[in-house]
Amino acid sequence: MFNGLIRELAKVKSYQNNTLSLYAKHKPELGDSIAVNGACLSVTKLFEGGFELELSLETRQNIAYKNLKNLVHIEPALRYADKIDGHLLQGHIDGIGRLSKIQRKENGVDFFINIPRKLMKFMANKGSVAVDGVSLTINEVLKDGIRLTIIPISFKETLFSSYEVGRELNIESDLIARYLDRIVNYKEESLCQRMPYIY
Questions:
Q1: CB-hemisphere CA count at 13 Å for 44?
Q2: Are the C-beta atoms of residues 73 and 132 closer than 8 Å to each other?
Q3: pLDDT given at position 191
Q4: Across 77-152, where does the E strand assignment appear?
Q5: What are phi and psi of 104, to 5 degrees?
Q6: Residues of the chain with pLDDT under 70
Q7: Residue 192 in 3-state DSSP?
Q8: How far apart are alpha carbons 57 and 18 in whole angstroms?
Q9: Contact status, residue 136 vs residue 111, Cβ threshold 8 Å
Q10: In Å, how far are 74, 109, 141, 194 from 147, measured between CA atoms?
Q11: pLDDT digits (tens, 9 = 90+) for 13-45
Q12: Residue whose C-alpha is closest to residue 78's, from 35, 29, 136, 26
């Protein structure tokens, strides 16, 4: 589990053959879980000044892998008794959003993000969402997306200041919203439907 607070901006050494190699100050152990731009990955190798992580086919098909270059957000997995300042995340990317507009304000910047239709039911005004692994509050739900306000401290500690319109973004919807949707909409098959008649 993670909480959407970026601990470091790691430098990408390379990304090839489904392996992501990063230079970072953080020193994990083999097998540790690290969220990279919000996607939970496992450490497979350590080297001087950094570590490697492997991306499964499932991961590669569901994240904005083109952004695995230059700098990336990283967050180590939470430990019991850790303080949670964001919200609980699994590091499971639900879909890819697209930055459609950036609008500067007095003490923040509004980011308008188009969200895949299948995820819109999980978006709620003042609800939580993770964008590239950053825990954020949804200020407004739009017809086909959301509006977020990025405050100065978030610009300082994340890569948002470098984002441009058109960028693809990893989106993880709220964990509680996903479970509630499953519970409310689940329809159990009857025993007759699941088992053939025996004569």
A1: 11
A2: yes
A3: 45
A4: 95-104, 109-114, 128-131, 134-141, 145-150
A5: -80, 140
A6: 188-199
A7: helix
A8: 8
A9: no
A10: 24, 10, 7, 44
A11: 999 999 999 999 999 999 999 999 999 999 999
A12: 35
